[in-house]
Amino acid sequence: MKKRKSLKKIARITILKSMLAIAGCVVLVYPLMEKAKENSNYYQVTLNGQVIGGIAEGEIASRILKDVRLAITKEEGSLVYMEPELVVTKENRLFGTRMTEEELEAEIYAILKADATLPKATTYAVKIEENILYLSTKEEVVELLEGVKNRFDTKQEFTVELVENEGKEFTSLTTNLVKADMEMREGAIVYAAGEETEPIEATQAENTFQNGVLSIEFEQDIEITESNVPVSACTTVQEALDMLTKDKEENQVYEVIAGDCMSIIAEKNEISLNRLYDLNTGVTGDTTLQIGQELIITVPEPELSVLVEEEVTYEEDYQVDTVYIDNDSWYNTETVVRQEGSVGYHEIVAVVNTRNGKEVDREIIQENVIVESQPKIIERGTLTPPTYIWPTYSYTITSRFGQRWGRLHGGVDIGVSSGTTVMASSSGRVVSAGWNGDYGYCILLQHPDGRQTRYAHLNKVLVSAGESVSQGQKIGLSGNTGRSTGPHLHFEMIINGSRVNPLDYVG
After folding, report:
1. Alpha-carbon distance 352 to 360, whole Å?
2. What is the pLDDT of residues 324-358, one digit of tens each?
3. CB neighbours (10 Å) of residue 149?
4. Of the residues 40, 186, 285, 339, which has the maximum number of CB atoms within 10 A of its CB?
5. Beta strand pairing status for 377-383 and 323-331?
6. Closest CA to 297 of 315, 314, 275, 281
7. Rounded-to-integer distance, Cα 385 and Cα 436, Å
């Protein structure tokens, strides 16, 4: 009995140990398995809602889809309407069968081929760069392109022709805009319609011009091919016209908020500052923006743009540039008008290029003057006028220019001690140097621009009458001579015989 109980106890212990060992393995192995699943290369491929299977590399699915579409198009002999919806999803699977590229290609081919063999109608695909739209007939294609062109060919002088597009893998057409009864221009190249000949050079009498539209063309390349698509995939001419011209779309605007300026708004909307100014006529760098003000940030661009070259003749006023006569004996602050200009009138012949109705270039090819413009003639000096500096190293003013004690104080008093260096404010010639009544010892300088400067109440004069001095040259020592209440320098500026405030002229 004791032996049986002992065996049961041993069995329970053994089972418990086994369970603990299994649990330990799970704890250790499970994270490794999850990590392995995360790192596993398993991508599930779904096409048009149908799960095809798994592959090891997700990017190969789109490449194979593109190859299969091209193969089916070649088999059908025309552009086949297909809108496959491919979804590739990475999944965490440790185990799972992965398809080879050949197996995946076969599955994608089967699905697309089934769709391609559904009942279709013969229509026309119009490809404009990356955009494709479908119309029911060739006549609708022409009607659509005529509608785009007629927005800028108001007189309907040009017609749209469909011509064979050479060099393409499939038979396709492109467009040619032809003007009825086109007149020859010098240098124009004219192709004989429907004939395989070299371009013919057309000439015209010199200096004769024609007003009106010279050429119209679509900016983008257009390719038209027969296509087998469901009728439901086709659009009406009006729908296609709205799509290509964006007539139903509106400008996008931005509402100004607190703290905005033009540069901040441009940065927010990822456009250049110059483009922002172009879109908002009248707004400049000096414009004060108001909170709530609306600014245009984008203008709808048509999918198909029209380029127009037009010759125009117009009359306008013109003004020739001003003629200047240099006088090397005058200062450049002196000018005299010798002749008043007059406005002229001329006739202009120009070739104007527009894109979607907006001018992008203008070349003037002839100008006929009707009334000649006369230039304004100005005589001007070329010499740089002299400059004036402060006559002392001290800038302390003890008395300013103006009325003082009932009479004009005709200069400024500079507070300096006796013996301080006095400098010539500008280069010139000494008119007088010596005693001058109430001024005491005084120096008067004559400068090249006709101005004079006076330095009074000096203690010592260091120059003589008739002597030439340079700007900043030491000409005397300050003092307290003449009618003076204490040591200082009295400094005057004289223009045309009248004393003026030196502070207005001295730098």
Report:
1. 8
2. 999 998 998 899 999 999 999 999 999 999 999 88
3. 21
4. 40
5. parallel
6. 275
7. 29
